Amino acid sequence: MRRLLALCLVSLALPAWAEGPSPVKVAELSARLYAAGMETGDPLLVLSAAKLRKGLAPVAVDRAALGGVAGTGAPLSWEEMLASAAALAADDALILGLLEDATVETTKGVASGPVYNIGSLSNGKGDTYPPIEFRGGEYAEVYVEAKAATNLNLTVYDDKGRLVCSDTDISHIAYCGWTPATPGSFTLKVENKGPTGADYALMTN
User: What is the pLDDT of residues 60-105, one digit of tens each?
Assistant: First the structure.
């Protein structure tokens, strides 16, 4: 039954998602699906995550936290996700065939993918970013993810220091979305509450 549901995600959900959520939201959805697949040992869920992420076109920027430490690498890639799926599939010829198809199939990607930078945080530490401008009346999104098993918290404050959005669930993934009433500057804070240090990707639209 679980595999049937995963196949439905691959064949049905992906086209619908491609027309709806923003690239930042798709990044979050793919990370959560990937985490669920790895937790349950289900290669088809991981495949679904990889197919979602393959449609993204993230762009690296030189954004950095105030006094922070830059990390290395890039956000979790669809190739890494497929490699994880292959490891879970073991000798299952059917799933390995699906993974092969996903590797070679082409995708247009998005016209303008999320921008990202890589930061690095020791356990118990936090990064504060210089104010970032977001447009009034347009949905704003901020998302962080770590490849390591840690606990990232994300908070967003307006130019008056008021909390606008937060995601403090125990997870290596954190997402905030809100619609500014007027154009303004917002301060982003990322905290590592996990047991170990980790590099993380910060994405915005």
Answer: 999 999 999 999 999 999 999 999 999 999 989 999 999 999 999 8
Question: How many structural domains comprise the chain?
Answer: 2
Phi-psi region of 122 (alpha: psi -120 to 50; beta: other; left: phi over 0): beta
pLDDT tens digit string along 76-86? 999 999 999 99
Tokens, residue 33: 């699906």
Considering the domain boundaries, does residue 123 fall inside one? yes
Q: Structural domain of residue 150, as residue ranges?
A: 115-204
Q: Are residues 97 and 131 in the same domain?
A: no
Instruction: Give me the phi and psi of 70, to 5 degrees please.
Output: -75, 140
Q: Are residues 86 and 147 in the same domain?
A: no
- Measured distance CA(165)–CA(81) in Å, rounded: 29
Q: Which helix or strand (DSSP H or E) is residue 152 part of?
A: strand 152-157
- Which residues, in sequence order, are bridge partners of residue 95? none
Residue 66 located in a structural domain:
no
